[in-house]
Amino acid sequence: MQIYLPIAEVSVNAFLLLGLGGIVGLLSGMFGVGGGFLITPLLFFVGIPPAVAVATSANQIVASSISGVLAHIRRRTVDFRMGLVLLAGGLLGSLMGVQLFNRLRELGQVDLLVQLSYVVFLGIIGALMFAESLTAIARARRPGGARPRRRRHNWVHALPGKMKFRTSGLYISVIPPLMVGTLVGVLAAIMGVGGGFIMVPAMIYLLGMPTKVVIGTSLFQIIFVTAFTTLLHATTNYTVDMLLALLLIVGGVIGAQVGTRLGLLLRAEQLRILLAALVLLVCGKLAFDLLVRPAELYSIGSTK
């Protein structure tokens, strides 16, 4: 069933968009990521203009993240204090990112920026996560099984402004979480992502949070940052297509509930290696599209 999207100015199959939303919702529940790293490139692939895809996908991320975080709240695996610190940095980063997005859109360079940002960030994060996950799985298969890893002190623990995060069992400075949140906010505005593909590894390896708490806390922060980003895009760029967002939201809410249940069936290192493989797959497709000569070298567009 073909429908016309008024803001994107293209016709797309409605069931295809529902399916894309469902896939991203599934990832949200399983891995604690908003799914924007996947939904935004997928929207590129089905013909949605990058500026509209970035602004609109944030709506779907909000809905699927709410659905996923409710399930984690029932299991008491959300560190609300850590989530609020990350959120403070995220709101600041979103404001900065939208301003940069607007400037580059005026210069006609936003499409290239979005695609290059995906290739760089997804490639780096995916490779690091994949290598670490393989090491963890190999360690677990050794005779005697995996030994509990001692929590090591690093430069994070030497910073001032420490706060106790009881749910995570941490007593660390608020500066690193604020920095992580700010970076994620910038990425949410420029790339249309919740930032979970960066936040989840940072919370595990940099802050030292338990994996079971990381997923719910990441989703909690993602909800508010992406909602704020969507509001800024809607009021400054007018690139939010509500019909497209509605279809993605319906599929995403259903998928998130299924993903939360599937996530409980897998071990932490298995979840991380699956997420890393998905990140690298999307990175490869985007890099391929950038390097291959297009069928049509020129296109006619207009600036609004």
Automatic annotation (TrEMBL):
Record-linked Pfam families: TauE
Location(s), subcellular: Cell membrane; Membrane
Key words of the record: Cell membrane, Membrane, Transmembrane, Transmembrane helix
InterPro entries, per database record: TM_pro_TauE-like, TSUP/Inactive_protease-like
UniProt KW Signal keyword: no
Gene Ontology cellular-component annotations: plasma membrane
Membrane topology of the entry: Multi-pass membrane protein
Transmembrane segments: 12-39, 83-101, 113-140, 170-193, 213-232, 239-259, 271-292
Keyword S-adenosyl-L-methionine annotated: no
Main location (coarse class): membrane
Family from the record: Belongs to the 4-toluene sulfonate uptake permease (TSUP) (TC 2.A.102) family.
PANTHER family associated with the record: MEMBRANE TRANSPORTER PROTEIN MJ0441-RELATED (PTHR43701), MEMBRANE TRANSPORTER PROTEIN YTNM-RELATED (PTHR43701:SF12)
Designated name of the protein: Probable membrane transporter protein
Organism listed in the record: Profundibacterium mesophilum KAUST100406-0324
